């Protein structure tokens, strides 16, 4: 099986057979659990138990349920919602200075908290859109549009001055179509602001503190970094946020790419990359390497 970019997909238990990848996953997961309030010794035991479950299962769903139950004993998943406002505040701080005057579409808005901050702090007209409606959306008081996975959003061409796609494209079954649609609804000369989970990175684009923080990840090969991304994308969306209902499972097609390849794809879709910022492992609850892309519709 391959992803949308023709790259092979790995089973989770296949990923953790790589000793370097497994050690990196363990070192990156520890600060996540500590951030969520789990003492260090307990966190280490949780990681050991989860990785054991990841290496020995018959069906992937069995691993998801077993690992989730391990986390639930310490009520880890229940601690996530209180941290999401901090995540939204971080992302807002990363993008606010790049927003052009005018209206904003938050494409793949999730809980809508970033759009909520933009509307409140910058007094902008903000529209939210996603393939599912998060329970927090109604509380935002913002206009929300639901659309189907793979379908065009219900907006006019050239409707928005700014379009956000914050950790969205790697969750799309067809990221190229999603990118083309965000380009379509953005006005000529407008901005598309993207945060993506990427791989194939080295230390040269990072501050020294971040280099030190993620030295294990940076020492991996390009393909090993992609394996780590797959593990954590699955762990965050299918283990931490476990659901038995297939309708509520987050789409995880693992459509990761390198920063260089994303820039080429943006250009093919009529978007000029004005700036790229390497954020590194910036989100404490989701340890994936992020880059911020500031794009202009030409």
Explain this structure to me?
The chain is an alpha/beta fold and 298 residues long. It has a domain at 80-199 and 249-297: Rossmann fold (3-Layer(aba) Sandwich). The protein is 45% helix and 17% strand. Strand 4, helix 8 and strand 5 form a beta-alpha-beta unit. Helix 2 packs across helix 11, helix 3 (40-55) runs antiparallel to helix 4 and helix 5 packs across helix 6.
How would you summarize what this structure contains?
This protein has 298 residues and is an alpha/beta fold.
Q: How much helix, percentage-wise, in residues?
A: 40-55%
The oligomeric state of the chains shown is single chain
The level-1 CATH class of one domain: Alpha Beta
Largest sheet: 7 strands, mixed
The CATH superfamily of one domain turns out to be: Vaccinia Virus protein VP39
Order of helices and strands: HHHHHEHEHEEHEHHHHEE
Strand arrangement, largest sheet?
A: 3-2-1-4-5-7-6
Low-pLDDT ranges: none
Number of strands: 7
Distance between the termini: 35 Å
CATH-derived topology of one domain: Rossmann fold
User: What gyration radius follows from the Cα positions, in whole Å?
Assistant: 19 Å
**Strand-residue proportion:** 15-25%
> Averaging pLDDT over every residue, what do you get?
95
| Helical stretch tally | 12
Q: What class do helices, strands and sheet pairing give?
A: alpha/beta
Please tell me what the overall shape is. Answer: globular
């Amino acid at each position: 099986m391959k992803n949308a970019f023709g790259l092979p997909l790995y089973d989770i238990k296949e990923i953790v057979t790589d000793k370097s990848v497994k050690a990196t996953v363990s070192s990156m997961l520890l600060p996540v659990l500590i951030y969520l309030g789990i003492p260090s010794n307990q966190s280490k035991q949780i990681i050991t138990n989860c990785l054991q479950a990841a290496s020995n299962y018959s069906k992937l769903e069995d691993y998801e349920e077993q690992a989730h139950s391990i986390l639930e004993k310490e009520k880890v998943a229940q601690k996530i919602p209180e941290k999401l406002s901090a995540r939204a505040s971080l992302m807002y701080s990363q993008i606010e200075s790049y927003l052009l005057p005018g209206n904003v579409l938050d494409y793949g808005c999730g809980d809508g908290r970033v759009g909520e901050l933009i509307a409140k702090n910058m007094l902008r007209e903000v529209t939210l859109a996603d393939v599912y409606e998060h329970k927090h959306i109604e509380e935002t008081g913002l206009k929300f549009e639901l659309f189907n996975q793979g379908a065009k959003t219900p907006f006019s061409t050239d409707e928005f001055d700014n379009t956000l796609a914050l950790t969205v494209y790697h969750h799309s079954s067809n990221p190229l179509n999603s990118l083309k649609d965000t380009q379509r609804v953005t006005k000529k000369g407008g901005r598309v602001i993207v945060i993506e989970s990427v791989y194939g990175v080295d230390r040269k684009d990072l501050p020294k503190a971040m280099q030190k923080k993620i030295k294990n990840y940076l020492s991996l090969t390009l393909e090993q970094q992609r394996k780590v991304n797959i593990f954590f994308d699955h762990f965050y969306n299918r283990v931490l946020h476990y659901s038995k209902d297939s309708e509520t499972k987050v789409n995880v097609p693992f459509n990761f790419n390198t920063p260089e390849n994303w820039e080429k794809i943006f250009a093919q879709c009529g978007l000029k990359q004005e700036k790229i910022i390497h954020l590194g492992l910036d989100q404490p609850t989701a340890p994936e390497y992020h880059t911020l892309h500031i794009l202009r519709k030409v």
